[in-house]
Amino acid sequence: MSTAVLTYEEARQQLAETHRVPTLGMPEDVWLQLRGLGIGASEAAAAVGASEYRTPFEIAERKLGLAADDADANYRRKMKMAMGHVMEPVTASRFADYTGLNVQNFNYMLAHPQHPFMMANLDRRIVGVSEAQYAWMEMLFGKTVKGPGAAELKNVEFSQGWGKPDNVHSTGGLCTSGEVPEDYFIQVQQQLAVSGYEWGFLVVTIAGWETRWYPILRDDELIDDLIALEGDLWDTICRGEMPAIDVEHPKAIDLLKRLYPGTDGSVVEMAQLEHWKKVEEDAKAEIKALETTAKTARAHILKAMGSAAVAAFPDGSCYRRKVVKRAGYEVAPTSYIDCRVAKISKAEKEQLEAESDEQGAAA
């Protein structure tokens, strides 16, 4: 039995009336138009200024259709999304197989019943939880939970920012440290807010082979903050206005360079910002002084090492020198000495002890 494909207007009306609309078979252009009706869970962290990758300004740009089209960025985004879709069933299957939880597809776009500008898509939902599984989750969450849960699936290259598993031999990829990237934690909180669920799991496959899962409990205090901050941003967007640029955000300089790529030849008086000029000058001077200090310290160590391969320190670290050869391409072949801090190896430690014994015997 086939289901008729909804037009954008039909889908928009259904979302407004029922707070959910089926997405299975939905054309991409309709899905993207619906996304423009609010702030999605994956955009939540950026919308409230908690993401280091995007800003509220950039969210508003996209919602108002003011974002410049970047072909390279669009290509990377599509490739990442495509690989994410490939890995989703793999990640979900590994999580379900180990935990025994019933993980189902959930092909709906959701909007918050009271705050429709808050939207979410759930990768999977967890249903049919047994009493024994609820008891297990009570131990994980530290409280009794009920009802279905959300499962957000991720595919990442590196483990940075992700807490390590509790014990891979006894509990597999379960991680109860709570250490997850903030963007993803906020994404799951928005999913719980919009769906009304109490709990969920953030499930990630790292480097294509290791799957970990992190229990996430609904945080109503954080959700209240999300509602307030996203509401303020959405009101600004609905007025056709742009939020102020947060100059303390890591992306502020890149964003400003993009917004003002050239000059108009004018001169502006900056007496009121003389303080910040002084702050920048002092910071650069301090950085330069610290770099000089670091180079001086390195010179002391290199001088004492001479032609030695390893310099060992009492804390178990070492400086290791080796010849690095570069093949010639457009420039002539070169070689240089690479010296970096490392952990002394067992063989190097034994060599150090042997040389020390020899020196003692000679004395």
UniProtKB/TrEMBL annotation:
SUPFAM superfamilies: Restriction endonuclease-like. InterPro entries: Lambda-type_endonuclease, PDDEXK-like_dom_sf, Restrct_endonuc-II-like, YqaJ_viral_recombinase. It holds the Pfam family YqaJ. Residues 31-198 form the YqaJ viral recombinase domain. It comes from the Bacteria. Residues 273-300 form a coiled coil. Keywords: Coiled coil. This is YqaJ viral recombinase family protein. It comes from Vreelandella janggokensis.
